[in-house]
Amino acid sequence: xxxxxxxxxxxxxxxxxxxxxxxxxxxxxxxxxxxxxxxxxxxxxxxxxxxxxxxxxxxxxxxxxxxxxxxxxxxxxxxxxxxxxxxxxxxxxxxxxxxxxxxxxxxxxxxxxxxxxxxxxxxxxxxxxxxxxxxxxxxxxxxxxxxxxxxxxxxxxxxxxxxxxxxxxxxxxxxxxxxxxxxxxxxxxxxxxxxxxxxxxxxxxxxxxxxxxxxxxxxxxxxxxxxxxxxxxxxxxxxxxxxxxxxxxxxxxxxxxxxxxxxxxxxxxxxxxxxxxxxxxxxxxxxxxxxxxxxxxxxxxxxxxxxxxxxxxxxxxxxxxxxxxxxxxxxxxxxxxxxxxxxxxxxxxxxxxxxxxxxxxxxxxxxxxxxxxxxxxxxxxxxxxxxxxxxxxxxxxx
Length: 398
Description:
The chain is globular and about 60 Å long. A hairpin with a 5-residue loop joins strand 3 (about 140-145) and strand 4 (about 150-155). Strands 1, 2, 3, 4, 5, 6, 7, 8 and 9 form a nine-stranded mixed beta sheet that branches. Helix 10 (about 250-280) crosses helix 15 (about 350-355). It is α/β, with parallel strands linked by helices. The protein has helices at about 15-30, 45-55, 60-70, 80-100, 115-120, 125-135, 180-185, 210-215, 220-225, 250-280, 285-295, 315-325, 330-335, 335-345, 350-355, 365-380, and strands at about 5, 35-40, 140-145, 150-155, 170-175, 195, 205-210, 230, 305.
C-alpha cells in the first residue's frame, strides 16, 4: 500500500507539524503504513524534503530529528534582524522607488538570506537522491508558484517525465529537488523576495510561495498514485462561525489575516471535501469499474487529517507564550523584534495573535508549537481508527 504524506505551509507553524509527526509517524510505521511519497508547500516543502533525506532511518528517529531541527530554530536563522536591518532597508528602498532612483526596488519586506544556510544545513541532498534511487522514497514533490505562468509548478523527484500526471491547473515537472526549489516554495509574496530557479532549464524563472496556489497539496499526492494520504496541516479543515473575541473595529491585521485564511485554509477545506465526496460516491469494491466507466480513473483514497481540531488553536498558543515571555517593558527589551511585530499587527488580540503565529521563529514559541502538535496527535490517535472516507465535519460547539 502506497502512503503519501502532505505537509502544508504556515511559516513558523511548521514546528507544530513536526510535533504532530513525532507522534504520528511511529504509529504509522507500526501499522505498516509508513509514508513513502512526500509532498510539501512552503515550510512544508522544507519538512517534506528533510523527511525524504532521513527516510532510511526508523520513523521515530526520523521524526525526532525533524523536531530537533525546529527546536534549534531562531529568528536570526530565518530572517535578518527586523529593527536593525529589514526595517531601515525597506524604508530606504521604498523611498528610493518613490523618488525614481534607477536600479533600486523593493523586493520584499523581510530579508530571508539566513534561511538558505539553515535549509542547506538541515538537508543531506545526497541522501534524498539515494533514498529515491533505492526505492526507500517513492517520490518527493515540492510546490512553487511560477510568476511567469501564474500556475502551481510541482517539482517531482522520483518520476520520469513520461510518468508524470497531467492536470488542468498545475504543471508537473521532473526534477532533482534542490535548495533552490525549497527556497522558491517558501518565498512568501510581499514578505520575502521571489526566488530564481534554474533547473530544469525548460521551466527556469522566478517563483514564489507554493501556498499562494496550493498550500495543502492533497491532489498532487493522489495524482502521484498513493493509496492513502496523510495530511499534516497547521489549520483546522473547516471554518466555524464564532463571536469575534476582539470587540474592536476590524483593522489592517484582521484584514490581512482574512486574506491569509482565504489563501491557506479555504483550499484545504475544498480539497478534503472533494476527496471525501468522491470517496463516498465510489463503493470500495467497484472503484476500478467506476474509473473505467467514467474514463477519469476515480478511486477511493482514505485520508488521515492531523492538525488543529479548532480554529484559532495556534493563535492561542501565541497568546500564552507572549504573556509568559514577552509581555511588558522587560519582555519588549529582551526581544525587540517580537515587540515590533506585535505592535505592527496592532497589539495583542485573538486575530492579531493568529497572524503572529506565522511569523514568530522564536525558540519559546517553536517549543510550545511542537508540544501542541504532540498533544493534538495523541488525541487523534486515541480514536479507534483516525482514517476517514467522507468529508471532514466541524466539531460540536462548546
